[in-house]
Amino acid sequence: MVARHSLKSKLLIVGALCIIAALSHSVWMRWMGGWLVHSGPPFHADVIVALAGDTYGHRILKAAELVKSGFAPKVLVSGPPGFYDLHECELAIPFVVRHGYPAEWFIAVPHNAHSTEEEARALLPELIKLHAHRVIVVTSDYHTRRAGRILSADWPGIEIRMVAAPDEFFTANGWWHNREGRKIFLLEWTKTLTGLVGM
């Protein structure tokens, strides 16, 4: 009898918690989406790095806007493989030039990285070659916190400012309203948690 009463109490508590979670979902879902975003205003830098992984061009366009505004003279355009035998930078630079920006603003950095960690290591020699001490890193808003943590660890002695580019589907305040936003959220949180435990 006591065991049944205890089970009933536990089920009532779980049910109450589920109702509270459902009623407050917009609050904690906004918080979880917002936690992924960790960016600041741009500062004057030696170079801008446009990280790979944005097939819509928001990152490269944001980087170009920053050069146009005088924050840095050049953009290193990260270029992993996998785009019909091309590196991403080989597509990104012509794309941004078609949008009216001079090709000489951009430096292609083709590499074979398949993760942000590998990308950081691939880009570091280029930063050293440019004697870069202050760097703006442009990436999608949901990627700023995780990428910033990785780059700060892998680029010792370089001051980094993460600047967010908008994403086609993800917003911190409404990522759950579309399928692609939900996929981005789940994947980014998975990568964040596995990275924190060293996986």
Topology:
Blueprint: H1 2-23, H2 25-35, E1 47-50, H3 58-68, E2 75-79, H4 88-98, E3 106-110, H5 116-129, E4 134-140, H6 144-154, E5 159-165, H7 179-196
Parallel strand pairs: 1-2, 1-4, 2-3, 4-5
Radius of gyration: 21 Å
Uncertain stretches of 5 or more adjacent residues: none
Strand residue content? 5-15%
End-to-end gap:
46 Å
Largest sheet: 5 strands, parallel
CATH superfamily of the domain at 47-164: HUPs
Order of helices and strands: HHEHEHEHEHEH
* Strand-pairing-aware structural class: alpha/beta
Q: How does the overall form come out from the CA principal axes? A: globular
If classified by CATH, what would the architecture of the domain at 47-164 be?
A: 3-Layer(aba) Sandwich
- Mean pLDDT level: 89
What is the number of beta strands?
5
Count of helices? 7
The proportion of residues forming helix, as a percent range, comes to: 40-55%
Major beta sheet, strand line-up = 3-2-1-4-5
Stated plainly, the CATH topology of the domain at 47-164 is called Rossmann fold
> What is the CATH level 1 assignment of the domain at 47-164?
Alpha Beta
Descriptive account of the structure:
There is one protein chain. With 199 residues, the chain is of the alpha/beta class. It contains 7 helices and 5 strands. It has a domain of 118 residues: Rossmann fold (3-Layer(aba) Sandwich). The chain is 49% helix and 14% strand. It has a 5-stranded parallel β-sheet, sandwiched between helices. Helix 6 links the parallel strand 4 and strand 5. The chain is globular, with a radius of gyration of 21 Å. 31% of the residues are buried.
